Amino acid sequence: MAEIDLKNLLPYGDTTQDGAVQLSFTLPVEPSAKAREAATHIARNWGFFDVKIAHMSKIGIGYSFFVVMARTEKSVDFTKVEAPQLDLEKRDYKEIDKKILQEVKRPIRIVGACTGFDAHTVGLDAILNMKGFDGDIGLERYKGFRVVNMGSQVPTEELIDRAVKENADAILLSKVVSQKDIHIYDMRDLMSQLKKRGLEKKFILVVGGPRVTHKLALELGYDAGFTIGSRPSDVANFLYEKMVEKLDRTPKEKKETKARGKKQK
Ligand code: B12
Question: Is the pTM of this model over 0.85?
Answer without folding.
Answer: yes
